[in-house]
Every structure is written in C-alpha cells, then in structure tokens.
Amino acid sequence: MASVTHSFMKLFRGSSVDSAQAARPVSTTQRLTRRSSGLGEVSRTLQSEEPICVLDIGYTSATNIRYLTERGHKIYSEDLLEASTDPSLITKNEQGQVILDSRRFLADNLVYPAAQFDVVLCWNLADYMDESLVKPVVARLWSTIKPGGLLLAFFHTREAGPDAPCYRYHIVGNDVLEMQHVEARKDVRKGPTGALHTAIEKSFRLQRVFNNRHVETLFRDFGSIKFFLTRDNIREVLVVR
Amino acid sequence: MEMPKSGEFAHIGKSVVIKGELSGSEDLYVDGTVEGTIQLQGNNLVIGPNGHVHADVNAKGVAVQGKLEGNIRASERVELQKSAVIVGDIVTQRIAIEEGAYFKGKVDIQREATASGSSASRSEHYGEGKSASAPVASGAAAASGATPSGKASSASVGPNTPVIKQ
C-alpha cells in the first residue's frame, strides 16, 4: 500500500523535478538532427490558423504530439509498423508463400471515415513494411486524405544499402527532424533449465528499395508528386491527394 | 495536479475484476481489471502496471502505467508512462507521454478558459517528463466551476493554495 501511495503522489505531484525524475526514457539512443525539405513544405499547412487533422503512422512520438497539438491541431497516432508484426496476420497465398493478411490488417488499422486528414506523415513506413501490406495501406491512406491533403513519405535510395537502420522521426522545427534509431527489442526469457536467454525481437530490416518509377506507381492515384533528394540517401516524397 | 487531501484513495488490486460502471468522488488506483465505464469527475485515476482497463474514462487527471482500451476525457491532464499501452482517443488540457509508451488514437487538446476569460497559454503544454503547472488544491473549485487550470499556469501557486468557493 505504501508503494501505491508513493506512486500516486509521485504521478500527481506536478512539480518539474518530480516529473523529470519520473520520465526515464526507454531508449538512450542519441537523436540525430536533419533538415527536411518535405517537412518544410508540409509546415506551410501546419502553420494554418485553422485546426487541421494530422495522421502520424510512425512510432508513438510524444514530440510530434506536442508539436502538433501546441499549434491547435488534432493528431491521430497509429504505429503501423508495430501493428504489422502481429503474428495473427501471418497467412499463405495461393502459391503457398507466407504473406500477411492485408484484409485483416486493414480491418483493425487505419479505420477512419473517408477524407478525414489534411496531412499524413508516413515517414519510412513503405521501406520497412511487409510487401503484402504496402499497396493496400497506400490505397487506404488515399481514401482517408482530404482532396488537396498532403502525404509525406521517405524512401531510401540504393546507396543507403540493405542494412540501412530504421529510424523514428520527431518534428522539432518547421523543417527540422530528429531521427532516433529503432533498436531491436531484447526479450530475456528463462529456459527450461532456468538459464536466462536473450532473444532479439522486432528489428526492422529494409524490405526493398523503391526507384522513382516505383514511387510514382505506388502513388499513381494521387494528384501530384514531388521529390526531394537529400545527402543522407533518403528520397523525400510529398504527394497531394 | 491535485494531491489527495487526506491521503485516502480507493485501490483496486490486481486480482480484482470489475464489470460495469465504476464511479466515485475520490481518487482511484486500478491495478486490476475493469470493463465498462469509469466516472471520476473532479478526481484522479491511476492505472497501475498490472491494470487492464477496457472502459471509457472521465476524470480530472489520468495516469496510465498499464493497459487501457477506451476513450479518456480528462479535465486537467493525462500522463502515459513508459509501460502504458493505450488504444482510444484522448481529450484533455495537457498530456505527457513517456518514451516507450504505445498509443493508438486521437489526441485533442481542449483548453478551458481562465477566470479572466483568456485561454491558457499553449506553452504550458508539455511532453516527455516536463511539467509546466503547479498543483492546486481545488476540490471545492471543481464543484463550483472555477478554473484551477488557469491558476495552475502560475509558478506562485502551491499545492495547498486555497480556492474560494463561489
């Protein structure tokens, strides 16, 4: 009971010192800063006085939630990459190949009314998501974006290499992002003999490299597409619904 | 965030399962399972690390360390600790999300107007770990409709500052 009292008082004390002590980050990965021309374009919409609806389908980012809500906007957060690791999605196609069930995935994720969002932040999702989900997800996103709405996505170039690390993206300025490496999650389990085993789970590998033609085909149902090539082997793509 | 005045609060242990509407006029700590709704207007809710809540929540402040599936409406603030798993929409004045928390849903920040009529400063909204407000003891104020959130933005307000009931 004493520990519960302590937890209660610590959580609701409200002082900056206590809150800072309570906020122990899970990951100590250093954040890298990068300028983003694509984000700079999106920021023109984010600076709108009128509240807009933003969908962030990357990792849960307190930074992004704070950045957008401070500007009066509504943010929807949905970690699709994490959701795609649900073991119950695994199935087989007609050729007997192991794939992910896109229908089931879309029954549980990205369930929104049509034309709801002004901005969708896709980040590097398409590069790391299973092949069987990419096109269905993009088709669903098309239906959820308002006409004239924006979608920002990042794609690695071939020069990035097959071991390009997966990053989380945090908005810290009009055209400035912080990148945080997604570390493989370690799960420590006890084996039958009582020995501890460390299993490495959920490390995301680059699934494919899109070239410009592939990207244009992927977003062919959108109205327009703009490419921004950067020095860090990332191709930023801004599409307009 | 207001502290429990007398130190008393209700506690649902981790083996307890409740199905139905849960309501009360005191702070509540849930470390068990609750399915239904939780109504704690003017009071705080903490979902402990073993807590599994499948309910819509209406409270003054909500802090989550465990799992919550449902919508949260908190008149003052919501805190998602690093072990939190939340699926549902959140409507509140302030939100803090620790690194590691999983959240799926909408965040809608709705600020109450201060007693003077001006809206609370946007700069007091905070993210990982930082608090911009001092707690105000205001059980009476919540009932009277006064706006402790406006005063909470002042650094000079302490935890036991009395609030005149109108």
**Percent range for helical residues of chain B?**
under 10%
Name of the CATH class of chain A = Alpha Beta
Uncertain residue segments of chain B: 1-6, 114-166
Question: Portion of residues in helices of chain A?
Answer: 25-40%
Strand order of the largest sheet of chain B: 5-6-8-11-9-7
* Gap between N and C termini of chain B: 21 Å
Which oligomeric state applies?
heterodimer
Strand coverage percent of chain A: 25-35%
Strand order of the largest sheet of chain A: 3-2-6-7-13-12
- In terms of structural class, how would the helical and strand content of chain B be classed? mainly beta
Structural write-up:
The complex is a heterodimer of chains A (241) and B (166). Chain A contains nine helices and 13 strands. Chain A has 241 residues and is of the alpha/beta class. Chain A has a single domain (26-240), classed as Vaccinia Virus protein VP39 (Rossmann fold, 3-Layer(aba) Sandwich). In chain A, the strands form four sheets. Chain A has a six-stranded mixed β-sheet. Chain A has a three-stranded antiparallel β-sheet with strand order 1-9-8. Chain A has a two-stranded antiparallel ribbon with strand order 4-5. Residues 14-26 of chain A have low confidence and may be disordered. Chain B is mostly beta strands and 166 residues long. Chain B is 7% helix and 43% strand. Chain B has helices spanning 139-144, 148-152, and strands spanning 10-12, 17-23, 28-30, 33-47, 52-64, 67-69, 72-80, 85-87, 90-92, 94-97, 102-109. A six-stranded parallel β-barrel of chain B has the order 5-6-8-11-9-7. The longest helix of chain B is centred in the C-terminal third of the chain and has 6 residues, at 139-144. The model of chain B is unreliable at 1-6 and 114-166 (pLDDT under 50). Strand 3 of chain A pairs antiparallel with strand 11 of chain B, so a sheet runs across the interface.
